[in-house]
UniProtKB/TrEMBL annotation:
Family: Belongs to the peptidase S1 family.
Protein name listed in UniProt: Inactive serine protease 35
Keyword Metal-binding in annotation: no
Compositionally biased spans, kind Basic residues: 196-216, 238-248
Organism: Sparus aurata
Length: 424
């Protein structure tokens, strides 16, 4: 057969290029889409009453003894029996009574794509790294809008995030120190920032500024919104003039105003307790609070992602109530530097008080062009980590990631019915 005519060869070449470009676009699209997971089921076996807690523990400013990435590689893989013990949980009710619930895990073998993640990078130093890059959201009209409105304050001094109309996800150490419940948990409350009154100064009613001149802080608000909505694009690359001034972009804070709601019950996994999880306790540093009354605030759904490497820039976001900026909501974003099966190691600037914040990312919904934020972890805070398993301590800012098993447990706590939790 002789050479093909140019009139035949050219269309074939063009078609091949078009197909290759389409395949590449689909691959990129898949990377930016929420993966669909068939998760195992966590089912209740038995609930028994326990004696009332003493509520004598004191809050811890820093956690220590966390088993890091290399340390965890030396720990034998947990058996199904171990996992069922770790995921069994205690429930403390508002009247001070307590129960213990044992669970069974079904369908664990079906979760095959979840593999151990190990990466390495240079290590930095604690809490606030270099120039403080947190954004103070001092305008209540903005901090009370989604996604920032999902952030709540816990009366023990931590933060949390609404994951249902009446459930808050937070860190276990904000409730329990591993041995006993914190003083104040028997009267635990959750605070949600109130909107500023529309009347009077700054409002839209009589005496307000209306649509005229910009108020102080409006520019800051727009910059933070642009950063959040663009998923942090245009990230800081140096310590130039723009970066230095960013930490100062906050208006004078108003007096904090929260709407407080009592907690009906609190649930903490046994994996967090001393003598149960031990070296893996940090993996279970999460708890769920059920509120007596659902606030009229939109919540954020949970999500599961196997690796942050496929997320744009590996970037995470979270907002909390840092102690050094009383009453104000503080937002930040940064890239994850290292990740293990259960923990995310990063250098997001944070201070005590932000522990328990919901760590989230934005990806597209499958088959849709709409981006959606979901919680993929809980910020645990600054921790001293046993890096190599030899007792040497290295400091990190750590977040507990939502795995398929943790998704199944939290979903069960929220819905009370594991049949609602087949797919993440």
């Amino acid at each position: 057969m002789g050479p093909l005519p140019l009139c035949v060869l050219l269309p074939v070449t063009v078609l091949a290029v078009v197909l290759a470009v389409a395949a590449e676009e689909n691959a990129v699209e898949d990377e930016y889409t929420w993966p669909q997971w068939k998760v195992p089921l966590v089912r209740k076996r038995r609930t028994v009453p326990l004696s009332s807690p003493k509520f004598s523990a004191r809050p811890q400013s820093e956690l220590s003894g966390t088993c890091g990435i290399k340390c965890q590689l030396r720990v034998p893989a947990a058996s199904l029996e171990d996992l069922e013990q770790f995921l069994s949980y205690e429930t403390v009710y508002e009247n001070g009574t307590r129960t213990y619930t044992s669970v069974s895990v079904q369908g664990l073998s079906e979760v095959t794509a979840w593999s151990r993640n190990v990466s390495s990078s240079s290590r930095h130093k604690r809490e606030v790294y270099g120039t403080d890059t947190r954004f103070t959201i001092s305008d209540k009209q903005y901090s009370t809008k989604y996604p920032f409105s999902t952030s709540v304050k816990i009366s023990t001094g931590c933060s949390g995030v609404l994951v249902s109309p009446r459930h808050v996800l937070t860190a276990a150490h904000c409730i329990h120190d591993g041995k006993d419940y914190l003083d104040g948990v028997q009267k635990l409350r959750v605070g949600i920032l109130k909107e500023k009154s529309r009347r009077g100064k700054g409002g839209k009613g009589r005496g307000g500024r209306g649509k005229g001149r910009r108020r102080k802080g409006d520019k800051d608000k727009e910059e933070v919104q642009e950063k959040e909505e663009n998923d942090g694009k245009g990230d800081r690359k140096g310590k130039g003039k723009g970066r230095k001034s960013r930490s100062r972009r906050s208006a004078e804070p108003d007096k904090p105003s929260f709407r407080w709601t009592r907690v009906k019950q609190t649930q903490v996994p046994k994996g967090w307790f001393k003598g149960v999880g031990d070296r893996l306790a940090a993996d279970y540093d999460y708890a769920v609070l059920e509120l007596k009354k659902a606030p009229k605030v939109k919540h954020m759904d949970l999500g599961v992602i196997p690796s942050l490497k496929k997320v744009p820039a590996g970037r995470i976001h979270f907002s909390g109530f840092d102690d050094d900026r009383p009453g104000n909501l503080v937002y930040r974003f940064c890239s994850v530097s290292e990740e293990s099966n259960d923990l995310l190691y990063q250098y997001c600037d944070a201070k005590p008080g932000s522990s328990g914040s919901g760590v989230y990312i934005r990806l597209k919904e499958p088959g849709k062009k709409k981006w959606k934020r979901k919680i993929i972890g809980v910020f645990s805070g600054h921790q001293w980590v046993d890096v190599n398993g030899d007792g040497a301590q290295q400091d990190y800012n750590v977040a507990v990631r939502i795995t398929p098993l943790k998704y199944a447990q939290i979903c069960y706590w929220v819905h009370g019915d594991s049949s609602e939790c087949h797919v993440a």
